[in-house]
Amino acid sequence: MIILNNEPMSKHTSFRTGGNADTFIKVESAEDIINIIKEYDNPIFIGNGSNLLVSDDGIRGTVVQIYDEFNQISLKEENVIHADAGALLSKIAAFARDNSLTGFEFASGIPGTAGGAVFMNAGAYGGEMKDVVVNVYAIENGKEVVYNCEEMQFDYRSSIAMKKNLIISGVDYKLTKGNKDKINEIMIDLNSRRREKQPLEYPSAGSTFKRPEGYFAGKLIMDSGLSGYTVGGAMVSTKHCGFVINTGKATSTDIYNLIKDVQRIVLDKMGVKLETEVRLIGEF
């Protein structure tokens, strides 16, 4: 394990904001995770920080990162891929393509890890983790257990892992044989559409808000007149109103206050309550 003290969380979140963590640990295995749970009080587990907003005051305690030290991908069976929890979805998608396996293209541009994605049932372009997952390996009560897809109780941006606060250690995906060139074409097209429609040039946490039933969060925000709305260095993207971006000098407090403003104004003008996809860590 790699253990760092007084580590800036701005280095480990896609918003590029947040204060320091007292202790920051990078793990290499499920065994490391189990040992940390035994040795440290209430550690906070994160992936690559693509869906986090960490307080400017930082974190008094231990943060455990399941990411680049725990990210192996392998072919378990002819059409089953196993990925450690820290593996990036983009890397898994590329691995699937290189093995002529189709079904994971939708995830190729999602900036998260295998663990984080199944935790919240991440999805894009009509696909979700529940469509491809067969087994999820998780740490529960101090040991590694296995949940199948049905047992994961996947729902929109939700799973049993979120409800029980499980720590994901690995995932098995079942895909189907396909044509490598066609798979690559789909990935190129989806990533091109993503670059065209999303403000990828700015730090953000992706889609800030969940999709309300019967609505699109971005359209509600735009129709509320909030395109380009700013608080300090945080802004509602003019390219896609579902994104809150860091224009360069935002603090986590700026981003948090902007999110609260958007929720209040959309509720007042449109009568719809927006819930965040972003996970808040620390005191706000």
3D structure, described in words:
The protein is of the alpha+beta class. The protein is 27% helix and 29% strand. The chain has helices at residues 30-39, 89-98, 114-120, 160-164, 180-197, 217-223, 252-270; strands spanning 2-8, 20-26, 44-46, 52-54, 59-65, 73-77, 80-84, 101-102, 123-124, 127-128, 133-140, 143-148, 167-174, 176-177, 204-207, 230-231, 234-236, 243-246, 279-281. The strands form 6 sheets. It has a 5-stranded antiparallel β-sheet with strand order 6-7-13-11-12. Strands 1-2-5-3 form a 4-stranded mixed β-sheet, with no helix packed on it. β6 (73-77) and β7 form a beta hairpin. It is globular, with a radius of gyration of 19 Å. The chain starts with a strand and ends with a strand. The relative contact order is 0.14. The mean pLDDT is 96.
Summarize the topology.
Elements (H helix, E strand, L loop, with lengths): L1 E7 L11 E7 L3 H10 L4 E3 L5 E3 L4 E7 L7 E5 L2 E5 L4 H10 L2 E2 L11 H7 L2 E2 L2 E2 L4 E8 L2 E6 L11 H5 L2 E8 L1 E2 L2 H18 L6 E4 L9 H7 L6 E2 L2 E3 L6 E4 L5 H19 L8 E3 L3
Parallel strand pairs: 2-5, 3-5, 4-19
Antiparallel strand pairs: 1-2, 6-7, 7-13, 8-14, 9-10, 11-12, 11-13, 15-18, 16-17, 17-18
